[in-house]
Hints:
Elements: E1 40-41, E2 44-45, H1 49-58, H2 61-75, E3 76-77, E4 81-82, H3 86-98, H4 105-117, H5 120-127, H6 138-151, H7 156-160, H8 165-178
Antiparallel strand pairs: 1-2, 3-4
Helix pairs in contact: 1-2, 1-3, 3-4, 3-6, 4-6, 4-8
Amino acid sequence: MRSAPTPEPSIQRTDRQPPGSHRTAALLAGLDGVPWGEIQDSSGSAAAIPRLLRKVAWGDAETARAALKDLRKRICQYGFVVEQATAATVPFLWELAQRPQVSCRAQIIQLLKNIADARQWETTATAYPKLLNHHENPVAWERAARQAVRARRDGLERLLAEDDSEITRATTELARTLGD
Length: 180
């Protein structure tokens, strides 16, 4: 006589789009086209960034917040030190900030503001100009990250029209930083 199979623990991932969800099918399109393994974040290889962005996009509120916290440490450490991978991550952050189903949108907007404010490497290069001649030029990373935030600022108007006061407050701060 055969016994009933023993149930296996769930191995369902919380960082992937739910099956059959057509509404969010285009969310994070192009993410796998970025050579994440070839660029650096604060921990070394930026290969974990796509997984973290997916957790922010499709995870429950707790999962999304934890992933965003980890992502923040990797691309804008201490709230003002950007990395090589930051500029490549910014368009996906803008996209997530625009999506109502994403639970931590205000925190994403605050991260974009931090990136737009980042001047740590430029300030350091003022005192130590040799930094500009370094093979890995963090000043260029910082400028590219700020430019990436500015390039998507057309999304500000929509975010300012949100009913969520936390989102509009964070967006207002970002708009001030960008001079809009």
